Amino acid sequence: MVITGKHLPRRTFLQNMGALIALPYLEAMIPARSVWRRAPKDPTRLICIEMVHGAAGCSPFGATQNFWSPATTGAAFDLSPTALAPLESWRKHLTIISNTDVRMAEAYKPEEIGGDHFRSSAVFLTQSHPMQTESSDIYVGRSLDQMYAQRYGQNTPIPSMQLCIEPVDRAGGCAYGYSCAYTDTISWSSPTEPLPMIRDPRVAFDQLFGAGGTPEERASRTKTTGSILDYITGRVADLKRELSAADRRRMDQYLDNIREIERRIQQVEARNTSGEERELPNAPAGVPDSFEDHMKLMFDLQVLAFESDMTRVFSLKCGRDASARVYPESGVTTGFHPASHHGNNPKRVTEFYQINKYHISLLPYLMNRLQQAKEGDSNLLEKTMVIYGSPMADGNVHNHRRCPLIVLGGANGKMAGNVHLKAPEGTPMANAMLGLMHRLGLEDLENFGDSTGEFLF
Amino acid sequence: MKVFAGAALTLLLPLILQGQRPEARAQSHYSYAVASSRAPHAPAARSGLPAAALNEVVKTYCTRCHNSEQKRGNLSLEGFDAAAAPRMADVAEKMVAKLRSGMMPPPGQRRPKGDTLSTLTIALESQLDSAAAAHPNPGGRTFQRLNRAEYKRAVRELFGLEIDVDAYLPQDTQSENFDNIADVQALSPTLLDAYLRAASDVVWLAIGNPKATASSATYSIPRTASQMETVEGAPFGTRGGLSVVHTFPADGAYVFRVVFFHETTGAFAGTNARGEQMEISIDGERVALLGVDRFMHAGDPNGASMLTDPIRITAGPHRVSAVFVPPALQAVAQDLIAPLKWSLNSTSTAAAYGFSLLPHLRDLVITGPDNPTGVSDTPIRRRVFTCQPKAASEARPCAEKILTRFGSAAFRRPLTASDVQGLMSLYDGAAKGDMPNAFEAGVRTSLQAILASPDFVFRFEPSPASVKAGESYRLSDIAMASRLSFFLWSAPPDHELMSLASAGKLSDPAVLQRQVRRMMEDPRAEALATRFAAQWLRLQDLDKVQPDVRQYPDFDEQLRVAMRKETEFFFQNLVRENRSVMELWSADYTFINERLATHYGIPNVSGTGFRRYAYTDPQRRGLLAHASILTLTSHAMRTSAVERGKWVMEVFLHSPPPPPPPGVPDLEATPAANEGKLLTVRERMEQHRKNPTCNSCHRMMDPIGLALENYDVTGRWRVRDNGRPVDARSELWDGTPVASPADLREALLKRRESLLRTFTRNLMAYALGRRVEYFDMPTVRAIVRNAATDNDRFGAYIMGVVNSPAFRMQRQEVADGDK
Of A95, A149, A143, A47, nearest to A386 (Cα)? Predict the structure, then answer.
């Protein structure tokens, strides 16, 4: 237990960020050079957060108590009985979209019945129905975050990043004939390509800001990289004399790559020297034991990455389906999954509601961090869209009707906030997501998942 | 009429190629007849057809489909002149390939009588071969870069350090089966970045970092792995877990967290097992013993995991084992289900009553160092720092000595004065401050530059300044040394090879031959099996198949690994013992361990070690009996005659069938039962094949696969499929009736030329780092022919490739600007 204390330099880790970022590396990213130059001006940052198991307010008893969505729609909604109560002081940045369905997570065939936990996560951001298989022929759909990243994420060093809190399972079957890929990630770059999610904040940190545990070490590594690039440039000049014409052309391309890397370093250094003195903190040692510390560390990373413009798109999976994790800070000692099977017993539904409320209570930390990150006259909260929801509704009966969905942040003026919108009965969540994607700048998108049109608001 | 004997052919054609009768080349269509009269074993009366007759054959039997209107297979043979084949060499080579494998004209179409087709084939080949002999084209390519496998091996050779290269370099692009084809090795900022990052991390890891901050490394065990036996490297008497060599960055305190598998709903999997302990050992010495808590739960704050106290460990590589120590009495008395080989086949029922599942380790997480105190002497540091300055004045000369030696090994050539100067100026820039630290910082920076340098990551082959575009030139001995070692070892040349090359002795044919023999016998030649053969045979696909757990509950990770190893050992043995390549199809032996022997139903084989096993029954021979290949060509729930047939056509015969036309329902869409009776795979396939569009290709592929129906999804012998007797009867594309794997083998062995040429073209592509083109085919044929005079020995093929102009020469490309 001695070393785990080392995780907690989070306090130093989260202070004002930005500086001394070394070279990021991400396998998926091989941008053509020209793409880098075509930077759309200040596109909206996107964070998609999934919570599993639905919410207490989606059960018959919970609905009567307004455990998830408020009783009234419009601006004058009362958050106090709901699990969203911790967001009261952020209501100007809150849009509640209630009453939408995630029917693509329902069973289509007899053998799919009961497999909701092993299918839902794959549906959340794709709103498509996963093919039941334990082999390699997985198929679902392209996810919202990836559609956005493929359009607007290409001009940052890392187009998008995927994070998770709980350990994911291994390849092969998970249960009910579903591949673990469906349970383990919410991001799909294509219907057949699940993107792995990073659980260890250190791994994410290194990918974003380069290796090196302390600011001094990273600074020294960046300096070394600079002199090595000079050395390589010199070598290229010598080598070109010995090479054939075709090989020389390839070396010219290599030289362009060197310039590009140098440009990135300069960009980061220019950022550092402008404005106040900012330094990246110590890198975290590994996965923290506490859920709360882990969540906050992941939020820190996201804000940090937005500030330094390393990436503009995140997805975050907060739980694993059927996980029985206990959240002691919620005041409930029942595990998450057992608590969701409350049998509509008022006492147990209330217990589950407390867990939901605890999860929501972590969001103000993110809101606050985003708001404190000033950019010109504005701040990152105004420039970010945070989508938070669950592909399940009443976890007790595994249904997917009237699922939880909220949106936070100003999204560059596209989200007015302070509103509760109740969709007509039977509206697919895909309709609401289509509306959000239009606001994100994917105006030409005509449909998404099982959408039947845009949910206008 | 009997098929023309391949052996005789190989004897008569060299005479043409060697140009003993130059006048024969002019009268191309007679040349083979002239030559055949000189060859002792050639059939006596092989009548040569005049050009007009050959063209008539093409017109009658080929252009009905291959005309400019239909263009079947995207090929028109209208206007093809069989007497002037070299003028359309690309088309002629396509014809040769199809004719040799007997795939054209296709089954069901009219074929000429007698040996007309082989006469046409030989006429085409002999023309192409003589034209190539008169105007050899060695081909050319751009420089290669180190791919993942080569980078990993290069770091191992330079430092003695094992790295997880997948964490650094992006996945390699494959082209024509292989991951080392130069022209698809695209450069990008991301790639450059990856090499820079790898250089930095590798050097820090190799020489240690006294100021390292804590970070964690996670080693995971796949869920498909059995954890019932002792794992390799772990102390005897232990069970499951894992054993790895981990490189610690500094002397300091490290903690080890062991994470266990749990039920889907969170309960620790293994609740019913009492008294289990987990032992952590470093280099075989126990450093922690944890009593496994049976009541752990994934819902606990730390999940189903346990943590050791901080343990002081010195820097450098150490073997870390985290394994279970079973209690004296851990009896599985009476279970509700029989224990299966795949011990963790379900996590849904792991803690249920009646299942005595034992605990399974899932991850080992090593976190540290805390309070690093420095970096102890390690084997890797001793290897790098061949001298240590005792005074400030000694530092620079010592650094120069280290960097010159290391740089030369990394750049695979002697260093020039300007190379040394460049590295030393980097040293001077970084060697600032107090003495021992300054020296180390300087050396570290230069080492990092060496690993990031284009001289290391690219394999340049300088071209003489005098060579003009379109001209060919001979590669230098230095370049040859690298070509040789990356071909045979996927690694840089060793000291012996480099010294011979530097002394200009590698051009001596006798020296070269001795070196090739030496390299084939060197352990590093494992790369030919684990890289060349594995990619040619597509063994990587084995990882993509997960046979259905309900039908094949014994299929676990150990079996998968053993399957792959069987094929690799078999191939490695072929190389080391310089055996006949024909054994790939005919060998009456293989390599197995206990796990695999149980799988095959072979008694009296015990232990995890592999040994040679001679088959006692005729069911299995050669590669087509290997469980690896039979499994990777199957689906999870059933065998696939189509996949197996397609695999044989592509991998062994280089005749890929075209992709299925769009909108065709696949086999899964045909009903699996008829009037309540389950259908066999064969019956379902016959229904599927009733569609005529499908049938034109499937009648080629399916019969091959059907002959292998006696092997189930995992390559085990079976006599029943879905409860009904297996029917392996079918008729191959050339009309040969087959009813068993043995029949298929016999039929394939009659296509000796096609098999050996396909093998050779793959070997060549891998050796050259470029795709094999039509103009390479005369070389391929010559290699096969010459190897036949040496009993088809593996070494003869290697030497054939190494001695070919394609390997030793390079054609200067015509640059865009020069056109």
Answer: A47
